[in-house]
Amino acid sequence: MEEVFNWAFIGTGTLAKTVADLITATGRHRIVSVYTRNYEKGLAFAQKYGAQACRTAEEAISAPGVDGVYIVTPHTSHYEYAKQALLLDRPVLCEKPVSTDTAKTAELLQLSEERGVYFAEAMWTWFAPVANKVKEWLDAGEYGEVRRLHMTYHLRSIGYAPRVSDPNMAGGALLDIGIYPLTYIYRLFGMPERIECRGRLKDGIDTGEHVTLYYPGGRKYTWSASILDLWGLERLVLQGTKGSTRLWFYHNAGRVKLYRKHGVDETFRGDGGYVHEFDTAASEIRAGLTESPLVPHRATLEVMQLMDECRRQMGLVYPFEQ
User: Fold this and answer.
1) Mean pLDDT, the chain, as a whole number?
2) What H or E segment, with its residue span, contains residue 131?
3) Can you name the residues that pair with 119 across neighbouring β-strands?
4) How far apart are the first and last CA of the chain?
5) Which of 7, 184, 253, 301 has the fewest Cβ atoms surrounding its Cβ within 10 A?
6) What CATH number is associated with residue 256?
7) What is the pTM of this model?
8) How many CB atoms lie within 10 A of CB 177?
9) Quick one: 133 and 268 in the same domain?
10) 83: left (phi over 0), alpha (psi -120 to 50) or beta
């Protein structure tokens, strides 16, 4: 039986608390050090999990026994903490998106590769078995020629956390939730020939967008996202000449069905939660990998390039970029 995997947590917000409860309950993960800019909040978080509260990120990253660093802060500080951890030769699992633009993302990935230190984007959809099963079916030709793929992620999440509506924290729909359908389509079909993005801007953030990805042979696939409405909720509709899939809450689904036009339908079940992500990352780090086969560096970089292009077309520039 493998030893418990020890994490340094950089960030103690809503998501950090959810993840911490889930992974520590398994007995396979332990939080040994914690840093957040508000020391008192960090201390309360650390005491709950029997961890060391640190006054600097470097102290938490360098704490004795740390096997990996989980970065779960607002988007705008991911780059800073991830770079610090990599320069200290600590493996990193960084929440999505790993930065706010392509240049910073490329720098982090290059640093990981040059130093031989594990770095992975915590895109839990692609650490989970269900999304990978859909890709497996697609690659095996189970869907035939895909005639339609449309995805929605409409979540009235503007009040989820202050960062969602704050342009100074790269708030808005694209980086927070639009990244899910965009990554999903990218992972199924690769880099498109071009992309068209129509977005809605208000108070310095994008409140939603509709995006079309164009592929060779006249193929095009679409998605939309919003932090203001629930139109369509979160749904994937994939229709091909041989089969189809309709999937609610695809970003963390635990079950998916392939409807075959000729033959028996097939249902697949798999863990869609955070624990599988952390188990997998821990295993990959122990194996000495520098990137995850499930979330390769190239995918992280190219999705960021697509998001940069969406922002360019929308005219979305964050205050800290001006």
Assistant:
1) 96
2) helix 129-139
3) 92
4) 52
5) 301
6) 3.30.360.10
7) 0.95
8) 22
9) yes
10) alpha
